[in-house]
Design brief:
The protein is mainly β. The protein folds into seven domains: about 10-155, no CATH class; about 155-250, Immunoglobulin-like, CATH 2.60.40; about 260-340, Immunoglobulins (Immunoglobulin-like, Sandwich), CATH 2.60.40; about 345-360 and about 370-430, Immunoglobulins (Immunoglobulin-like, Sandwich); about 430-510, Immunoglobulin-like; about 515-620, Quinohemoprotein amine dehydrogenase alpha subunit, domain 2 (Lipocalin, Beta Barrel); about 635-905, no CATH class. It has an eight-stranded antiparallel sheet with strand order 53-52-51-50-57-56-55-54, with no helix packed on it. A hairpin with a 4-residue loop joins strand 56 and strand 57. It is elongated, with a radius of gyration of 64 Å. The protein starts with 10 loop residues before the first strand and ends in a 6-residue tail after the last strand. About 35% of the residues are buried.
């Protein structure tokens, strides 16, 4: 065991657990250094007595410092180990073992080794038993310790014999020899050279440690022809080196090169690739040099066994050969031609009656190429028009349609042929303009998408006489735009190509006018929306449309107004439409207003969208003109009330009074509404009216916190010669919460709700007649004004919330003598406008306990309805103080409530 103490626990041998019946004898154990352990014995049972450790040689450490372990206890010297383990009685230590060459793992013993004859004298080798090297196990007086038995036979060197070389050629040979290792590990090689100094060796081969002859062969290359080489075999083992006898070989002369297969001629396409090859015999190494036109070609590619041209050009045409050379001589191949032909196809267009010229690009050594032109695969006959059929240039004069077809030039070089690229020839004629008629009838502001076409591949068009607003693309004849004026247009068209200009083509096109209902002034309403930056306030739009289809106008959302321009898109027989982009500056995204105008009624329907959200828009057209179509049957003054639904009477969050308005209609169809909402908000609005008397109403209220919008219609009554025209409609009313802490009038706002519009035409009574068509002669207390809602139900005088008046022919109303007026109510009636107004006073006990009553004076405003023979309006009444409320409610911060004032004829007393 040699230096076997570098792994587990630094011991040469580890014995543990219940190991038994082991014989560890006649071993040499060499450790790495002083202090390393030889034997680690972990056994703790009594079975160890069956093991035998003895007749061993220890080295590498003195016995006094040698390390052993016995049952997990270190024994610090050889004596302690023997005493503790009762082993190794005949073993000993030596400073050195004296191996033959331990560094090269030759563990045979030298003649000075202390292991010689140091074994157990009682050892008797078995019949045929040998040491590691196959020698007799006992060679001396006693058996040696270790793997090798020392004796005279252990110093035998290998034998070596140089044999004749075989397979001798001008540059190579196979060297042969025989070696006997004589029982020792042996390697062998050949040395060779031009002298007996040799100078070159082969790679050593391991021949093992046999005792028989071992053949050895090695192929050597790179020899020089016609030279004498010396060689011999060399064998070595630990006992020495043996060299065989010197022998010689003579290399024969190198065979000269002979080109047996020449490069081949080639006729190839331009842009393709070419590769020249050859076959030659003769000795190696050899050099190659390719030649063009008998001139060596430069560059590394010309030195290769094959010559490649990756991309052929006409300049590559020529005669190619190859010169092959070795140490004996050279041989030049036959020169062969390389021809190049352009095989790229092409389209050729020639004008009618012009000269057609076709050429082929080809190159080869002079005089080797011949040509033949073919048309549609057939030979071409030569005549007075056609020349050059057998040359690289074909000429055809006065070309006609019969000359159109596929042409190729067949190029021949010796036995090789290659067709040029196909020339597809077509004859170009002057354009012929196709008859033009619009696919759909043209109409003012209608999109024109027709295209003018012509035969024979026109390159450009010239078109005149198009209506204003319509243009064309001169390259492809595409028409675009929208006509701006109606009329009959004579359109003149020519087309041009390289062959010339076509004959003039004429087309008569009628452009229809826009529908009358699509031209004029339009007003309408945008539906309420929580999106689109309108805060549910709704909106109104106004625009005009001209006879050319141009649109301009405004759209108002809340307090913001944006202008827009656009153009109608009309189609004959269909309603005009438009999609108009409305810029809202940098703060908001643009709006798109998409509308359709009914071509008969002028009614507008559509949407406003910001791309994510949208709301509906609806509008009307002003049907009237004071001169050509006056609104005579509608013109005049009208009064109307705006009444909340009865379902809200018990809900204190909504105003309860009548809103009202006085409307003036002109013969031009303009409408002006002046009035108030039931919370006192002023409403002034000007707009237009359609043919049926319908008009939009929209007004921002309460500092843009609320709005009123809806549709009002004046219904004519021809039976009364339009004196009894009536007013009907619905108005949406909405208010957001107040932002001011001082606000008292419905400070929490109120939800959107619908008011019913009802009224009639107002006419001043004839002289001597009474207002509201009350009967004559005037009677006492023929008129009554009643008050409801607005907090009147909690007033101390709630039971007397009406007052009788006597209406007189001078249109004044008084409290007749002898009748009381507990509310101190007044009334003023305007026979010209139909307006009514007045005041009343309430007196209530002071909730603070003071004897001074709470006095509240309220004013009411409204209008009279002639046809309905009544009137109405609203009043605003502060609520009573409440000192117990937290915080206290006073006369200066209490809510102001809207109440209803109703004017009516007093029913006559029963007879």
């Amino acid at each position: 065991l040699y230096l076997n103490d570098t792994l587990r626990n630094n011991g040469q041998i580890t014995l543990q657990h219940n190991i038994s019946n082991c014989q560890i004898q006649h071993n040499i154990m060499v450790c790495n250094a002083t202090g390393k352990q030889f034997i680690l014995m972990h056994n703790t049972t009594s079975t160890f007595a069956t093991n035998a450790i003895d007749w061993n040689l220890y080295s590498g450490s003195a016995s006094t410092s040698a390390k052993f372990e016995w049952r997990k206890v270190d024994q610090n010297n050889f004596t302690n180990w023997r005493s503790a383990s009762d082993q190794d009685d005949h073993s000993f230590f030596a400073a050195t073992v004296d191996f033959t060459d331990a560094s090269n793992l030759d563990f045979s013993l030298s003649d000075t080794s202390p292991a010689i004859n140091a074994g157990n004298p009682a050892f008797v080798s078995a019949i045929g038993e040998e040491d590691y090297f196959g020698l007799a196990r006992v060679a001396g007086t006693e058996v040696d310790i270790g793997m090798a038995e020392y004796g005279s036979s252990s110093a035998i060197q290998p034998t070596a014999m140089t044999d004749d070389a075989t397979l001798i050629d001008y540059d190579r040979a196979t060297l042969n020899g025989t070696v006997n290792p004589n029982g020792f590990q042996t390697s062998a090689y050949f040395e060779y050279g031009l002298t007996t100094a040799y100078g070159s060796t082969t790679t050593p081969q391991d021949l093992g440690m046999d005792t028989l002859d071992v053949p050895l062969s090695e192929l050597i290359t790179g020899l020089t022809h016609k030279k004498t080489y010396h060689y011999r075999v060399v064998a070595s083992n630990t006992n020495g080196t043996t060299r065989g006898a010197d022998r010689t070989i003579v290399t024969p002369p190198m065979p000269p090169p002979v080109v047996t297969i020449d490069p081949q001629p080639m006729l190839l396409p331009l842009g393709g690739s070419a590769t020249f090859t050859f076959t030659a015999t003769g000795g190696l190494p050899r050099t190659v040099r390719w030649r063009k036109n008998n001139v060596p070609i430069s560059g590394a590619a010309a030195l290769a066994e094959s010559y490649a041209i990756p991309t052929l050009t006409l300049a590559h045409a020529g005669n190619y050969s190859v010169l092959v050379t070795n140490g004996t001589s050279s041989d030049l191949s036959t020169a062969v031609p390389l021809g190049i032909v352009n095989t790229t196809p092409a389209l050729v267009v020639v004008n009618e009656n012009a000269t057609l010229t076709l050429t082929v690009s080809a190159a080869a050594p002079s005089g080797l190429l011949s040509y033949e032109w073919l048309k549609d695969g057939n030979p071409i006959a030569v005549d007075s028009r056609i020349t050059g059929v057998t040359s690289s240039k074909l000429t055809v004069k006065l070309a006609t349609d019969a000359d159109a077809g596929d042409y190729v030039c067949r190029v021949t070089m010796g036995a090789l042929t290659l067709d040029s690229g196909e020339r597809t020839v077509s004859i170009r004629h002057k354009p012929v303009v196709d008859p033009f008629a619009p696919a759909l009838p043209w109409i003012v502001s209608g999109s024109v998408t027709d295209i003018v076409t012509a035969q024979n591949d026109p390159a450009s068009f010239r078109i005149t006489g198009l209506p204003s607003g319509v243009t064309y693309n001169r390259l492809n004849g595409q028409l675009s735009g929208k006509p701006l004026r109606a009329g009959t247009y004579t359109v003149k068209i020519t087309a041009t190509n390289l062959a010339g200009t076509s004959a003039l083509s004429t087309s008569v096109i009628n452009v229809s006018v826009l529908p009358t209902a699509g031209i004029g002034t339009f007003h309408g309403i945008a539906d309420r929306s929580l999106d689109l930056v309108q805060d549910y306030l709704g909106g109104i739009f106004r625009f005009t449309s001209t006879p050319t289809g141009a649109i301009s106008g405004t759209v108002t959302f809340g307090a913001r107004t944006w202008r827009f321009r656009g153009r109608l898109d009309a189609v004959e027989g269909a309603d005009p439409t438009a999609v108009i982009a409305i810029s809202r500056g940098r703060a908001y995204s643009a709006l798109a207003m998409a509308i359709t105008i009914n071509r008969t009624s002028g009614v507008v329907n559509g949407t406003l969208s910001d791309g994510k959200n949208s709301t509906g828009v609806n509008g009307i057209r002003n049907h009237w003109n004071s001169r050509s179509q006056p609104a005579t049957n509608f013109a005049g003054r009208y009064t109307a009330l705006l009444t909340p639904p009865g379902a809200l009477d018990t809900d204190p969050s909504y105003p309860k009074g009548h809103g009202y308005g006085t409307t003036t209609v002109s013969t031009s169809g303009t409408v002006r509404w002046v009035g108030r909402m039931a919370d006192g908000s002023s409403v002034v609005h000007s707009t237009i009216m359609d043919s049926a008397g319908k008009f939009p109403l929209h007004r921002l209220l309460n500092r843009s916190l609320g709005s009123a919008q809806g549709w009002i219609t004046i219904a004519v009554d021809s039976g009364s010669l339009f004196a009894d025209n009536s007013v009907i409609g619905d108005v949406s009313w909405f208010k957001k919460p107040e932002t001011s802490t001082r606000a008292r009038n419905y400070r929490e706002g109120f939800a959107d709700h619908s008011l019913t519009a009802l009224g009639s035409r107002w006419l001043r009574p004839a002289a001597g007649d009474l207002l509201l068509d009350l009967p004559l002669p005037p009677s006492v207390n023929n008129l009554q004004l009643g008050l409801t809602h607005g907090g009147t139900d909690t007033a101390a005088q709630s039971a007397i919330m009406s007052q009788a008046f006597s209406l007189r022919t001078n249109h004044t109303a008084i409290v007749s003598p002898g009748f009381t007026n507990p509310l101190k109510m007044t009334i003023a009636l305007n026979a010209t406008t139909g307006g009514m107004s007045g005041r009343f006073t309430l007196s209530d006990p002071n909730p603070s306990g003071s004897t001074r009553p709470i006095v509240r004076t309220a004013y009411y405003y409204g209008v009279m309805l002639r046809l309905q023979e009544n009137g109405g309006g609203y009043f605003l009444l502060p609520a009573l103080p409440d000192p117990l409320h937290i915080p206290p409610i006073t006369s200066t911060n209490s809510d102001i409530l809207s109440g209803r004032a109703d004017l009516m004829a007093t029913p006559p007393l029963p007879p």
